[in-house]
User: What shape does this take?
Amino acid sequence: MNPRRALGLVFDGERLTVLDQRRLPTEERWLPAETPEAMREHIHCLAVRGAPLIGVAAALSLGHYARGGPRPEAFRAAAARLRSARPTAVNLMHAVDRMLRAFGDGDTEAAGREAEAIFDEDVALCEAMARHGAALLGDGDGVLTHCNSGALATAGVGTALGVVRRAWEDGKRLHVYVDETRPLLQGARLTAWELRRLGIPYTLQTDGMAALLLRAGRVKRVLVGADRVARNGDFANKVGTYGLAVQCAHHGVPFHPVAPWSTVDLAVPSGEHIPIEDRAPDEVRGASGAFGTVRWAPEDAAVFNPSFDVTPASLVTSLVLDRGVYSREALLAGVLGTLGG
Amino acid sequence: MNPRRALGLVFDGERLTVLDQRRLPTEERWLPAETPEAMREHIHCLAVRGAPLIGVAAALSLGHYARGGPRPEAFRAAAARLRSARPTAVNLMHAVDRMLRAFGDGDTEAAGREAEAIFDEDVALCEAMARHGAALLGDGDGVLTHCNSGALATAGVGTALGVVRRAWEDGKRLHVYVDETRPLLQGARLTAWELRRLGIPYTLQTDGMAALLLRAGRVKRVLVGADRVARNGDFANKVGTYGLAVQCAHHGVPFHPVAPWSTVDLAVPSGEHIPIEDRAPDEVRGASGAFGTVRWAPEDAAVFNPSFDVTPASLVTSLVLDRGVYSREALLAGVLGTLGG
Assistant: This one.
């Protein structure tokens, strides 16, 4: 397996390390991920997050593990553990299944090549999405986004934020409105950090303020990532996305999920079949990160904390895939099923 | 001036003190408010908050000040300073103007009586709102609320949360879904604290999760307070309220602001004329309270931080006033203007 380098993940030819995204932007700490079990823990605890990246990370982890020549049953057990690290993003399941097929009964070289391919494909998928999506953006546009869908979430330039980056690099002046994205603050911590690095102007707001920006006409389009897209175009993404889609419909602002083909799950007919991960109550009772751990709610407060929500295709203006841009009408007519594997 | 006692404000016959709401629920710290200037600072920094309570607090502060026999020009200057402590809630302006009229050229006794009257009227207004509003709630209902509109926000049982309390005390089983209400977390800190004291079951969620609860049918009605109601029924309330009203319209969930007559400003024809306070960027870059001060966003992040937003009457199912319940149709037909002073 040859070296690969992403913003949040590096394989230098010997060691596999990941950027601890829980600690950004306060601290840039790299963690070793020498075993599939270590990578599983990094994914489970969100040190590594973003649907495309967790698929790539799982693949590189298994590719790295294969180099040691594990017994097939040990490799399969490690793969099964990784596959269950988080339930919603299908990229993880896709990537692990590809690695299992490549390794077969012990083909170390094939596993390494497959891991490289999964990484390289993700970079290419990001490029293709960025190219298709950037055509939607005009000079001077305000764009609003939720959570983090940038380079930190992928092996490449990102999904929704990759679109913004490409349009910006094409010379379009843009302003990005960033939902802070409670409870884990991926917008305030990660998207703000990425935009600052890129020099793209942005404004941070709380999630409840987005509706005001839409009403005021400051937002031309809303772009978000996706963790799993069902066959009918419904999709799961970070909790808060559904409410944002409703706001877009009310205010007549175009709403676009941006996702690679690896996020599409044709086996899932519609959104209600996507499994949604519930997370710990303390995430909502306060906040935790390299900035510290604080709790502001009563310690015994009952909490509702789904990690994701599902947005129906009926609220989607168009879905930006690496393969092209698909309108709501096309999604509702079943276009994804016709695109095949 | 005789003793008066509210959940967040006590005049014991000699000393005027306020509960520091910034430090709840971590700590119950009482602050002296011996001068109008001290009270102005408490209101400005949100130690004392809630549209009705800041009006009552200003009145008691001026009533207390009047006992010392200040010169009329000093009294008027103190009143003017208090009046400008926060720009959106009209209760503050109403209360200060009443105190100025009562004190006139130095009538200490009249000022004391007026302060008592303003306090007692607020208690009675809360009772009347609670009675009218409770009739809207049925046994087993889920109710969602934003920010804090309970006893902490008034001299009495509260506005929207007072309605919940009355219905609960009437024997209706209720479950309250509490928006945490970023950035200042009045829901997570104050509403949760009040509901816990009252023994009313509640669940805390981030603001972006409310849409999911509405879609799931877990919320029968949404009740919120108001900081200023315009003549046409548009109203300002804590930022995030407007987006919640849009969600209610989309999901067919009835949406009710609950406010005392002292919150209505007939001089303001519609919502776009209500002044909206912008607050400091650091409120959005992190969080601060007795639990500590943390910053999770880049320290130079540009921020959008209006303290309030305006919801148009067209999104209101009915407005619960102390005088009765007024439907959207009645509001749009101008009923508030006909109710007079």
User: Anything to note?
Assistant: The longest helix of chain A spans residues 108-134. Chain A touches chain B through 58 residues (CB under 8 Å). The CA atoms of residues 209 and 302 of chain A lie 25 Å apart.
